[in-house]
């Protein structure tokens, strides 16, 4: 970056008047974050048996091995973690990842994975959601794209990273991709605000429902044909913030594991007979079908075949048109493609077959009408298909162009530096002033409403300090994260509690905001001081934030407290 870019990147918005720069809740040492690793099986943890075949290692073998690798476990770190945990050395971002491994029994080759296993993974994430900063799923590569796609739909209103990874060679071998894949997955899950189910492999983090396995003999085994990586991991970890899928509902995280597994995939081929298609579609329990078609969504348009497809559609079978091509999208440019649409087949656009199949199973299980299910299949639920609507970019606006001209900027790199420097300030000022119209205009120009300023404070931090419920609700609806922390370790929930904005606290809690387990422990000290001062309002605020209002003394007895009358 040029000197101008560096100077601009230092610009910042002054702190809101209501915010006092202090940490009322002590942060864990070295800014410690916790990650849960769900070890389901796969090549990464396999060993050779006497015949040379790869089989799952004995229970507990993986954690014992990881504790011998210095860059995967800092054995000198104190206090030492539990026996089912490891701790990474302090990272470049000054964060330390402590990770616990939950080993499944039995460990599975991913070829044996089923929807029941997807449900178990999703339920484990839900059960442990508030205890961890992020999650890593260790999984075999053969069906990894199916699992990451299914998890992306099962996890509703996800606000934390879920990174699926594995390896082509066992982690115990001298030459392996397993150690690097695991290390980076842990860093991504613990250090970055990427609220998606992602798949990390060979220096790339992909959206989980956009990937497909393309090579069984290379470390570079996966690709995302129609979407760039969410992150590129080289000398630096570069996050592509422009394409991250931010949740846009003011609801808590939950999982919906109900799937209708009466779905199938039919790949068309030259010369496919009417009988083949008819027999496939006439299966009594068939509820949905992915049709893998030629090119941009074409199929033989002979009338007898279209009649068979039309009859299945009339029976309520939902059929999705996905191209056999690795890249590109289903369109209606050709008459052969239009014939399928007339027969009732829905365009799958640029969804991968893995994403389309898991999405179809997810949608079919919903308690919706047939038409509502069809409409849902054509909408982007988790970024699984491309929205062709093009929005103007902030760097293309006349405002930015005028500033760039006055500074004699004429290259894309410095123009981007101007945009990146101004965006956080503009959106934070709009949030402080309660100007939703300005926020909406900035959003329409491509501005990122979740970008943090120099102190790591997002517009949601500012709005929480101001107590502006409408702005908080607006930002949450546009993907603002309740888990974002500024450089002081504070979340928007911290700010709302400190400034005693009850309605904001309630809204943030409704969306899933919570204190970490270590913060909960430290909050007890705060409760004692509130009891001592007779601060009933303060106790109410902390209770709304999810902290137990009944502090105990050193003997574990509840402290009796008589609330002061409200003024």
Structural class: alpha/beta
Largest sheet: 9 strands, mixed
Unreliable stretches covering 5 or more consecutive residues: 1-30, 553-567
CATH architecture verdict of the largest domain: 3-Layer(aba) Sandwich
Could you say what the CATH topology of the largest domain is called?
Answer: Rossmann fold
- Report the CATH superfamily of the largest domain: L-asparaginase, N-terminal domain
Task: Report on this structure.
The protein has 567 residues and is an alpha/beta fold. 35% of the residues lie in helices and 15% in strands. It is built from 19 helices and 19 strands. It has helices at residues 3-9, 61-66, 115-127, 144-154, 178-191, 274-281, 303-314, 335-342, 353-364, 370-377, 398-406, 412-432, 436-444, 459-466, 469-477, 492-498, 502-511, 517-533, 536-544, and strands at residues 32-41, 46-48, 54-56, 85-87, 96-108, 134-138, 155-156, 162-165, 197-201, 204-207, 212-213, 222-223, 231-233, 237-239, 254-255, 263-267, 288-293, 318-323, 346-347. The N and C termini lie far apart (56 Å). Mean pLDDT is 86; it is low at 1-30 and 553-567.
Summarize the structure.
This protein is 35% helix and 15% strand.
Keyword list:
Rossmann fold, disordered N terminus, 19 helices, alpha/beta, 567 residues, 19 strands, disordered C terminus, four-stranded parallel beta sheet, 15% strand
Set out the fold topology:
Elements: H1 3-9, E1 32-41, E2 46-48, E3 54-56, H2 61-66, E4 85-87, E5 96-108, H3 115-127, E6 134-138, H4 144-154, E7 155-156, E8 162-165, H5 178-191, E9 197-201, E10 204-207, E11 212-213, E12 222-223, E13 231-233, E14 237-239, E15 254-255, E16 263-267, H6 274-281, E17 288-293, H7 303-314, E18 318-323, H8 335-342, E19 346-347, H9 353-364, H10 370-377, H11 398-406, H12 412-432, H13 436-444, H14 459-466, H15 469-477, H16 492-498, H17 502-511, H18 517-533, H19 536-544
Helix pairs in contact: 1-12, 3-4, 4-9, 6-7, 11-12, 12-13, 12-14, 14-15, 14-16, 15-17, 16-17, 18-19
């Amino acid at each position: 970056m040029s000197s101008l870019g560096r100077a601009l990147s230092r610009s910042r918005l002054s702190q809101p008047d209501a915010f006092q720069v202090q940490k009322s809740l002590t942060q864990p040492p070295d800014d410690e974050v916790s990650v849960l690793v769900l070890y389901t099986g796969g090549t990464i943890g396999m060993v050779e048996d006497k015949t040379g075949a790869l089989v799952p290692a004995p229970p507990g073998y993986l954690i014992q091995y990881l504790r011998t690798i210095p860059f995967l476990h800092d054995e000198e770190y104190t206090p030492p973690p539990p026996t089912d945990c490891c701790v990474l050395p302090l990272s470049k971002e000054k964060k330390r990842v402590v990770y616990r491994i939950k080993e499944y029994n039995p460990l599975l080759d991913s070829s044996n994975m089923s929807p029941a296993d997807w449900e178990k993974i999703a339920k484990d994430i839900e059960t442990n959601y508030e205890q961890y900063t992020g999650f890593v799923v260790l999984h075999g590569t053969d069906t990894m794209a199916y699992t990451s796609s299914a998890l992306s739909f099962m996890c509703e209103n996800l606000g934390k990273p879920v990174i699926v990874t594995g390896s082509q060679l066992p982690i115990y071998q001298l030459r392996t991709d397993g150690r690097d894949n695991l290390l980076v997955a842990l860093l991504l899950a613990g250090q970055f605000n990427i609220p998606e189910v992602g798949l990390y492999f060979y220096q790339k983090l992909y959206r989980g429902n956009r990937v497909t396995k393309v090579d069984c003999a290379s470390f570079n085994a996966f690709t995302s044909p129609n979407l760039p990586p969410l992150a590129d991991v080289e000398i630096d970890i570069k996050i592509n913030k422009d394409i991250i899928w931010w949740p846009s509902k003011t609801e808590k995280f939950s999982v919906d594991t109900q799937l209708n597994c009466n779905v199938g995939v039919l790949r068309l081929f030259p010369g496919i007979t009417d009988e083949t298609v008819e027999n496939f579609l006439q299966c009594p329990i068939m509820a949905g079908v992915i049709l893998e078609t030629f090119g941009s969504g074409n199929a033989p348009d002979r009338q007898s075949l279209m009649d068979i497809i039309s009859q299945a559609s009339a029976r309520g079978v939902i059929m999705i048109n996905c191209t056999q091509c690795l890249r590109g999208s289903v369109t209606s440019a050709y008459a052969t493609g239009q014939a399928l649409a007339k027969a009732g087949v829905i365009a799958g656009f640029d969804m991968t077959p893995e994403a389309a199949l898991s999405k179809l199973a997810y949608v079919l299980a919903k308690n919706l009408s047939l038409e509502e299910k069809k409409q849902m299949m054509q909408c982007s639920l988790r970024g699984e298909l491309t929205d062709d609507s093009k929005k103007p970019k902030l760097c293309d606006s006349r405002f930015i162009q005028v500033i760039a001209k006055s500074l004699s900027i004429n290259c894309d790199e410095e123009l981007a530096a101007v945009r990146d420097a101004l965006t956080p300030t503009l959106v934070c000022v709009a949030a402080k002033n309660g100007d939703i119209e300005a926020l909406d205009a900035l959003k329409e120009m491509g501005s990122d409403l979740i970008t943090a300023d120099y102190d790591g404070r997002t517009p949601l931090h500012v709005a929480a300090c101001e107590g502006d419920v409408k702005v908080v609700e607006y930002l949450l609806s546009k993907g603002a994260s309740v888990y974002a922390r500024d450089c002081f370790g504070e979340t928007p929930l911290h700010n709302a509690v400190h400034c005693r904005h009850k309605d904001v606290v309630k809204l943030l809690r409704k969306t899933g905001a919570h204190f970490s387990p270590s913060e909960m422990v430290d909050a007890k000290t705060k409760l004692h001081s509130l009891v001592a001062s007779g601060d009933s309002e303060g106790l109410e605020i902390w209770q709304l934030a999810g902290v137990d209002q009944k502090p105990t003394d050193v003997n574990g007895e509840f402290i009796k407290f008589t609330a002061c009358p409200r003024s």
